[in-house]
Amino acid sequence: MGRTVPTFTMVIQQEMESWGKFRRGLRREDQEALDDLFRAARLQLAGSAYAARPIPFESIAMCMLLAQHRMILDLQQRLKKLEATHDTDDNDHRVAV
User: Fold this and answer.
1) Rounded Cα gap, residues 73 and 62, in angstroms
2) For 54-69, how does the pLDDT look when each residue is reduced to its tens digit (9 = 90+)?
3) Mind spelling out the 3-state secondary structure of 21-34?
């Protein structure tokens, strides 16, 4: 019989388990942050499976970085909108002299 190739879901689970001791050494809020990073990797299963990297953690780390970068871009966009709204409000309240 041939070898069974694990699904990328299984690979992520195995990777999470391999980081178990590291996770236990973290503070509670950092444990939750680490869990969030692994959840982010699960959101990109198709891309990770398609990439078929020889070292699976490379795909997992790239997914984590992608999630972080998307969050940064989203926050930058929201900040620009707030700044634009704030600038508009300031202009509306100026008194002509």
Assistant:
1) 16
2) 899 999 999 999 999 9
3) HHHHCCCHHHHHHH
